[in-house]
Amino acid sequence: MSDVVQEHGWTSVPRSLEKLVADRKDKSAPKPVKVEDMPLPDTPLVQQVLQYAKENLPRETFNHSMRVYYYGQAIATQHFPSWHYSAETYLLTSLLHDIGTTPSNRGSTHLSFEFQGGIIALSLLKDSKAEIAQAESVCETIIRHQDLGDTGNITTLTAVIQFATVLDNTGMHAELVHEETIKNVANAYPRENWTSCFAVTVRKEVEVKPWANTSRIDGFAEMIEGNDVMKPYE
Prior knowledge:
The chain is mostly helical. 56% of the residues lie in helices and 3% in strands. The protein has 12 helices and 2 strands; from the N terminus they run H-E-H-H-H-H-H-H-H-E-H-H-H-H. The protein has helices spanning 3-7, 17-22, 44-56, 59-79, 87-96, 103-106, 113-127, 132-143, 156-170, 179-188, 194-208, 220-225; strands spanning 12-14, 153-155. The protein has a two-stranded antiparallel ribbon with strand order 1-2. Helix 4 runs antiparallel to helix 10 (179-188), helix 5 packs across helix 8 and helix 7 packs antiparallel against helix 8. The chain is globular.
C-alpha cells in the first residue's frame, strides 16, 4: 500500500459503522482522554485553514467541528489503532466538513451541502498548495460524511468522521467514548445549543433543496433533537 494512501486515510474499510464496531479485535471499555492529550497539528496549512474556519463558520459550527476532531481521534486511537492517517488531514477535514451549511454557501448553489463543502475544501486546499492526495481525501470525506449505510466501503478517514459526527449530533456510538472525554471536550468547545442549531440547519437544507442528500436520512432532525447523550452539555 502506498504511503500516500495510508497518510491521508484512503485505506478502504466497510461502510457499516455497526460492522466496524462489532469486528474490533479489542472491545475494551474506552479510557478517559483530555483535549490536552490530543494536541493539534501545528503546520502552516493547519494555521491557514484554522483561521479560515474561524472567519467563515458560525461559532457553534466551529465548536462542533473541533469536537468532531477530538471525538474522532479518541475513537480511532482507542478502538481502531491499526488505522493510519495523518492528524493534519483529519483536522483539515473536521474544520471544513460543514462549510457548505453556512447561509452564503448554501444559497450559492443547487448542490447538497456535503458536495458544495467538498468542492470548497478541494479548491481552498489546492490554492493553499496542499498535496493533491490530501486535498482529495478531505473532499471525499466531506462529501461522504453523512453517507451512512450497510453496503460497500468507505475510507478510514470517512469512517472516523462518521463516528465523530453521529456521536456529536445524535449520541450514536457513545459507548466508544468515555463520559469524561465527552465532558472535557464539551467544556473546551461548548455546544451552545448545538442540538437545536443543527436541527434547524438540517430542516432548512431540506426545505430549500428537497432533493438534498440530507433527505435520505429519515427523521434526521428528530434524531438530532433526541440526542440525550449530549443534553447535559447543551
